[in-house]
Amino acid sequence: MLTNAEISNALANIDYKRKKAGTGYLRGIRDYGKTTQFMLPKAAAGYGQRGIIDSGITRRGLTDIATGIQTGYSDLRSGFDDAIIDLLGQELGYEQNWADNRVMGQIDKWASDVQGIASRADWASKYREATQ
User: For 127, what's the count of Cα atoms within 13 Å in the CB-facing half-sphere?
Assistant: First the structure.
């Protein structure tokens, strides 16, 4: 079993990793946005230059680009969600360990109390036998 200090350190590390994952996700969204912000306007302009702005080809091309952009954002979010779920699992394990420490400490105390009561009862029984 881990000590409470080890558990506290592990939980602090998990909190740090959670914040780092959130910051990484936000940076990823920002950077991905910068790289994709001109994709649709450029594509639309390109189709306009070719004179096919109102065609099904344009809609198909722009839909494919938009789908690719949305997939990229979904992949970023999925990676973030996986990291957070992993950290939550670790955190739950450490908190369970902390709770186990507390429960086991209480059980040990109760066992010690019971042993003390039993030894006093045994002493009292022996005292009664000796004085009768």
Answer: 6
- How many residues in the chain? 132
Taking only the tens of pLDDT, the chain with its 132 residues reads: 788 888 889 989 999 999 999 999 999 999 988 888 877 777 777 776 666 667 777 778 888 888 888 998 999 999 999 999 999 999 988 888 888 877 877 887 888 877 877 777 777 777 777 777
Segments making up each domain of the chain, as ranges: 4-131
Burial 64-89 (b: 16+ CB within 10 A, else e): ebeeebeebeeebeeebeebeeebee
Q: Report DSSP letters for 70-95, one per residue.
A: HHHHHHHHHHHHHHHHHHHHHHHHHH
